[in-house]
Amino acid sequence: MSDYREMWKELGLDLEAHDQLLAVIPQIYGDVYLSQKNRPEGMSYLDFVMSEIHGLRVKELNDLKASGGKVVGTFCLYVPEEIVLASGAACVGICGGADWPSDEAERVLPRNLCPLIKSFMSFKLAKVCPYFESSDMIVGETTCDGKKKTYEVLGEYTNVYVMHTPQTKDDSSRRLWLEEVEKFKNEIEELTGNKIDSLALAKGIAMVNAKRAALKRLNDTRKANPVPISGKDALLIQQVAFYDDPVRFTEMINKISDELEKRIANGVGVFEKDAPRILVSGCPMAIPNWKLHHIVESSGAAIVAEEACIGHRYFRDMVSDTGTEVDDKLGAIADRYMKLDCACFTPNKERINNILRLVEDYKADGVIHYSLQFCDPFTVEYASVDKALKNAGVPVLKIETDYSMEDAGQLSTRVEAFLETIKETEGVVL
Ligand code: BJ8
Fold it and tell me: Which of 35, 73, 108, 117 is most buried, taking the most CB atoms under 10 A from its CB?
């Protein structure tokens, strides 16, 4: 990696703590990723991105800022990146997926809080995330209680704007959400000093639709048997989608898809044909949270899809770009985001239907429901997911965990037992 220390210093990072954070990533990445056999060649792009995780992309963002551009940091799928890109700003996901000591966060937040929230708060307080420190505005949202109250605290440390997200899907919620989308556009115009007209919105929509289409194409290849890419690699791609340059990322992912489609034509896979196929459903796994995927795939099963925000929920729906006026485009954006089926919605029948559909489309032999500790929306919604899957005769395993590796042994044992059950019922190869 080039020497980025001057840049990190200028961003105000705590260099010593940041060194400690960066020091652990190569070891974990080597163990989890580089140890895999028969990886698609195109994954070398992702290896490069990871080797530069706090370097090149951060430099690009800061070059943009030096030329008058802005950077907007987000935590949730509800924030319409089409609008951010339409303004000429860059949009980066800054969700925390690292097992970074949460002492800092616990100075201002309760201990019994979701690790994703504590992780991003610790990153901010410890000054170790260059994406956080490069962001001119952080956009929060009123999804779960933990996040929405944390944004009040975070607002004491940085520039936070909060979007009020709906919790139901009726007409009045849609009207309120459209107003939020319009207010967000105004806020972004004010931040960047750029007017967002219909043409700019069309460009933003096209850019994000292309990225979503590339991710959909890549994920479609995971329907094949044998599967041409590991779940771990697919997860990494979906994580990087939130902070890479969108145009370059789309091009690279389409190239990897070309390779994967050739692999399918030649019957090449990364797991044995008929290896157990697992759908993971639940909370998002932010980079570098690869824990469950690593455990499952080390046991010989393939993860074929993620029913999650870092997964299908991100790329499933496009914004339809039909009208010509700004209002038409904002309406289309609002409609697309109303289709999200996060567990923060009530009722949330769509999510159950989508899980069942994914099981069928990806021919999953079983589902692992993944919740982060203290995440009420997903842990409570598990009961409905479990019922629907059991009614459909699909084996399901519930996992509730955090970012530490302390329970890795216990999780491996439970996953192996689950795969044995699948093997007995389905006769799949382990
Ligand atoms: S649209 S899933 S990204 S809110 S895991 S912080 S819900 S306690 S991340 Fe999410 Fe938006 Fe929904 Fe997606 Fe709260 Fe649960 Fe933690 Fe969560």
Answer: 73
For residue 20, the surrounding DSSP H or E stretch is helix 15-29
2-210 has CATH 3.40.50.11890 classification: yes
* Angle, vertex CA 236, rays to CA 231 and CA 19, nearest 5: 135
**CA 139 / ligand 1 centre spacing (Å):** 14
pLDDT digits (tens, 9 = 90+) for 130-180: 999 999 999 999 999 999 999 999 999 999 999 999 999 999 999 999 999
List the one residue out of 218, 200, 302 whose CA is nearest residue 254: 218
Longest Cα–Cα distance of the chain, Å, equals 62
Supply the residue whose CA is at minimum distance from atom 14 of ligand 1. 144
Listed by start position, the domains of the chain span 2-210
Query: Where do the H-state alpha helices sit in 135-243?
Result: 145-154, 171-192, 198-220, 231-240
CB 147 less than 6 A from any atom of ligand 1: yes
pTM of the predicted model, to two decimals?
0.97
For the chain, 430 residues long, the average pLDDT of each consecutive 10-residue run is: 89 96 92 96 98 96 98 98 98 90 88 95 95 98 97 98 96 97 98 98 98 98 98 98 98 98 98 96 97 97 98 98 93 98 96 98 98 98 98 98 96 98 72
Ligand 1 contacts CB of residue 344 (under 6 A) = yes
pLDDT in tens, 287-297: 999 999 999 99
Distances (CA, A) of 74 to 284, 332, 401: 14, 21, 24
302 phi, psi to nearest 5 deg: -110, 130
> What is the distance in A from the centroid of ligand 1 to the CA of 126?
22
Q: Is the Cβ–Cβ distance between 191 and 73 less than 8 Å?
A: no
Compute the distance from residue 283 Cα to the ligand 1 centre, in Å.
6
The protein residue whose alpha carbon is closest to atom 15 in ligand 1 is 375
